């Protein structure tokens, strides 16, 4: 109930930040050391928190969080994840972080950028228009009326 009462009895001995849970204090203490206990098996990059490693593997190495199979691109990974949902291994909510098209619905019709999370999909049409300017052969000259 400390979370609701606002009580924070655990403090960081280095910076003084206070925490309601001992586990949060312990995790915080890692930022003051060089300890990064979670290591990527693909590129050897290390992380303080396991969820940061999981995110790294999903975005950089296209790794399935269920069976750890790797894919060459995000689309293949998303397609693979659907097999886990269909066979009942996992709930369909596992697909939510992978549905980039729902998060960034505007894609560039010239270069096709936009399907993968890390490959410029745009959150609104203004950002898409700005990107489209990079495909023009002549420089864009703004006219004022």
TrEMBL record:
Keywords: DNA-binding, Metal-binding, Nucleus, Repeat, Transcription, Transcription regulation, Zinc, Zinc-finger
Domain of life per record: Eukaryota
InterPro entries noted in UniProt: Zinc_finger, Znf_C2H2_sf, Znf_C2H2_type
GO CC terms: nucleus
GO biological process: regulation of gene expression
Domain C2H2-type: 10-37, 38-61, 62-89, 106-140
Record-linked Pfam families: zf-C2H2 (PF00096)
Localization in the cell: Nucleus
Family to which this protein belongs: Belongs to the krueppel C2H2-type zinc-finger protein family.
Name the record gives this protein: C2H2-type domain-containing protein
């Amino acid at each position: 109930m400390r979370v609701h009462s606002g009580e924070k009895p655990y403090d960081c001995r280095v910076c003084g930040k206070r925490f309601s849970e001992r586990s949060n204090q312990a995790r915080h203490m890692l930022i003051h050391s060089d300890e990064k206990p979670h290591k990527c098996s693909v590129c050897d990059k290390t992380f303080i928190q396991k969820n940061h490693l999981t995110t790294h593997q999903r975005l950089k190495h296209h790794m399935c969080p269920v069976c750890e199979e790797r894919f060459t691109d995000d689309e293949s990974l998303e397609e693979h994840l659907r097999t886990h949902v269909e066979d009942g291994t996992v709930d369909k909510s596992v697909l939510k972080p992978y549905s980039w098209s729902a998060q960034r619905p505007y894609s560039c019709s010239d270069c096709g950028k936009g399907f993968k999370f890390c490959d410029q999909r745009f959150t609104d049409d203004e950002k898409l228009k700005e990107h489209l300017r990079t495909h023009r052969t002549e420089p864009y000259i703004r006219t004022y009326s």
